[in-house]
Design goal:
The protein is of the alpha+beta class. 33% of the residues lie in helices and 27% in strands.
Length: 288
């Protein structure tokens, strides 16, 4: 048996939507399991030589975890990871690995747990419901915790928007480090400010792109994280001052710019990788 899953990159938070908003991008990792090949783990592309190629690999661990949760028995298999999502750049590479592992486990076991339990298991493992939901379902998502567990609603981003990711070549920012600098409590005025901007950014991303430069403002996380990545902070300020709609991609250090007609990113020169992947509307799905 051979099965391949395609899992997209994601950008969480989208300015004010801390831990609840995310969007999927048409930039993806592909993970393949093959029960007829020699057992092992192979990593190609982004993270080759850096990510584990043994049983500690996140995709592999997720497959085995889901099998235990479902009470199933896995056959020996080879896992091949073809990665296009940059690591530690705020583009959801870990969410991609976990979601891919969940889907592959279901494929190997011949199971179908349904979207709600699939989301729950992935969030339990990865910890970020916004990234996980966007990776799983595609599009623009609002993730929330209900009385029945984690849920997500999907929206369609405006076709007028071109998502453009700016990746610094020399800066990385592990998520746990980016979390440590956040305050445990925030002023009521800052919380109220973000509540208003969350509502505004959903409107801006779906129907009123002209509002995005204002809607992407945030007081809960970007101001604490940007000082950790000085080059990115300087560029962020330049982009904001130019009138472009920009936010930190997840916890950073990449930036997400929403280009529109007449509002395009200029040539940044060496030191920056600029990607224009478009939005992903399908989310994680099997290719076989």
């Amino acid at each position: 048996m051979r099965s391949t899953v395609r899992v997209p990159a994601t950008v969480a938070n989208l300015g004010p939507g801390f831990d609840c908003l995310a969007v999927a991008l048409d930039l993806a990792n592909e993970f393949t399991v093959d029960t007829e090949a020699e057992p092992g783990v192979e990593v190609l592309g982004e993270g080759a030589g850096e990510l584990p190629s043994d049983g500690t690999n996140v995709v592999f661990r997720t497959v085995t975890y889901v099998a235990r949760e479902l009470g199933g028995s896995l056959p020996p298999f080879r896992l091949t990871c073809r990665n296009a999502i940059p690591l530690q750049r705020g583009l959801g590479s870990s969410a991609s690995a976990v979601v891919g592992g969940v889907v592959l486990a279901e494929s190997l076991l011949g199971a179908d747990v349904g979207p709600h339990r699939r989301l729950e298991m992935a969030v339990d493992l990865e910890g970020h419901p916004d990234n996980v939901a966007a990776c799983m379902f595609g599009g623009l998502v609002v993730a929330y915790r209900s009385t029945d567990g984690w849920r997500a609603e999907t929206l369609g981003p405006s076709p007028e928007l071109q998502p453009t990711v700016v990746v610094p070549e020399a800066e990385r920012l592990p998520t746990d480090e980016a979390r440590r600098v956040l305050p445990r409590e925030v002023p009521l005025l800052d919380a109220a400010f973000n509540l208003g901007r969350v509502a505004l950014v959903v409107l801006a991303l779906t129907a009123r792109p002209d509002l995005l430069p204002e809607a992407l403002q945030d007081r809960l996380h970007q101001g604490y994280r940007l000082p950790l990545v000085p080059a990115t902070r300087a560029l962020f300020q330049d982009l904001r001052e130019s009138g472009l709609a920009v936010c930190l991609a997840g916890s950073g250090p990449s930036l997400l710019v929403f280009e529109q007609v007449g509002r395009r990113l200029w040539d940044l020169g060496p030191g920056w990788r600029v990607l224009r992947p478009g939005f992903d509307a399908r989310g994680a799905h099997r290719l076989d």
